[in-house]
TrEMBL record:
GO terms for biological process: methylation. Keywords: Methyltransferase, Transferase. Its EC number is 2.1.1.-. Signal peptide: none annotated. Belongs to the N(4)/N(6)-methyltransferase family. InterPro entries: DNA_methylase_N4/N6, RM_Methyltransferase, SAM-dependent_MTases_sf. Residues 105-188, 226-353 form the DNA methylase N-4/N-6 domain. It comes from Herpetosiphon aurantiacus (strain ATCC 23779 / DSM 785 / 114-95). GO terms for molecular function: DNA binding; N-methyltransferase activity. This is Methyltransferase. Pfam families: N6_N4_Mtase (PF01555).
Length: 353
């Protein structure tokens, strides 16, 4: 938001009630014009107080303009009532905190199946130094759409802690599992450097996501279920993350990789609350002159375990660490080899039936 103003709810609601009582469009428009000319003077609310409400200045100005430009008094009254509802009541769904009475203000939340993210969020302790970690915007979007503040999230491939950091910022509790002990330490140290005003649980633990007992881990925090699971596995052997034979990047074959993914999903399923969501972020690979549809094959593995596919999101990526300084070389290779350079990955969204 460009300019956030706090208003006292009673004062705004009284103003709108007065406009509803007007019986002529001319009088209504004149009153709105007089108000908008000194709108900031009405901002006498106190931040975060129950009797105050916040609006972006430009957004509220647009709402008032829409009322003023209505062609009929009936339509103007409809817009007034809608604005009054957005001030007086909060309407959310069971799975997130998005206020549907103010849905137009969430223009930073993606609802399309193509995500074009030009630059990764590097704020705070986020770092792109860990080869293969996903951009923070992915878990941020997923948690805002599919969890409420205070909900629980698990990340089966915690890595450098991207999901943990975003969860703590958003007020979601999160547990991650990571095969590499030094990355567990790295992620936990990163999270500890982030502010935690809501005393959120955000921890990475050492373990194998194909065998980990999520029930026992959650029980340590008095929990039985989680509301969102995020899985961002290695894209088979594109990047070698460790020498551990349990590492999915060391799977002997695509079939072995898919088998390990199936095992990881099987561990998640019992603790994911019914009706809640699992997100798998994965890309394809090129092997022996053939495009391997690793993403869709992984999607099928999850579906075979009884999950309902809700969406397939295609996300762009521009400069990967491995190709950042080799653009011309890869372009030459593509021309010679007759293939196309990977510029996308998938976010498969599933719902537990």
């Amino acid at each position: 938001m460009d300019r956030l103003l706090w208003f006292r709810k009673p004062r705004l609601l009284n103003l709108l009630a007065g406009w509803r009582d007007l019986t002529a469009l001319v009088a209504l428009r004149a009153s709105i014009l007089a108000t908008t000319s000194h709108l900031a003077d009405y901002a006498d609310g106190i931040a975060d107080q129950a009797e105050s409400v916040a609006f972006d200045y430009a957004f509220l100005l647009g709402e008032l303009q829409q009322i003023s430009e209505a062609q009929t008094l009936e339509r103007a009254h409809y817009y007034i009532e809608r604005l009054a509802r957005s001030i007086a009541t909060v309407r959310t769904t069971a799975i997130n905190d998005i206020n549907l009475n103010r849905w137009k203000e969430y223009d930073d939340i993606n609802t399309d199946s193509l995500w074009m993210i030009d630059r990764r969020d590097g704020s705070g302790v986020h770092s792109a130094g860990y080869w293969g970690n996903f951009v923070p915007q992915i878990p941020n979007q997923l948690m805002r759409r599919y969890t409420k503040q205070g909900d629980w999230v698990i990340d089966t491939f915690a890595g450098s802690g991207t999901t943990l950091i975003e969860a703590q910022r958003l007020g979601r509790n999160v547990l991650g599992v990571e095969l590499q002990p030094h990355m567990v330490e790295y992620a936990n140290q990163a999270v500890e450097r982030e502010p935690n005003p809501l005393a959120i649980v955000a921890r990475s633990v050492h373990g194998d996501c194909t065998t980990i007992n999520w029930q026992a881990l959650l029980a340590d925090y008095g929990q039985c279920h989680v509301q969102l699971a995020i899985m961002h596995p290695p894209y088979f052997d594109i990047i070698n993350f460790s020498d551990d034979e349990r590492d999915l990047s060391n799977a002997p074959s695509v079939e072995d990789f898919l088998g390990q993914m199936a095992a990881a999903v099987a561990q998640v399923k019992p603790v994911l609350q019914r009706g809640r969501h699992l997100a798998v972020i994965i890309g394809d690979k090129y092997m022996h002159g053939e495009w391997v549809a690793l993403g869709f094959r992984t999607m099928e593995v999850v579906q075979q375990q009884g999950f309902q596919l809700k969406s397939i999101i295609v996300k762009n990526f521009e400069d990967t660490t491995g190709k950042r300084h080799q653009k011309e070389l890869w372009r030459y290779r593509a021309l010679v080899g007759g293939f196309y350079i990977f510029k996308h990955e998938y976010i498969f969204l599933f719902r537990k039936k």
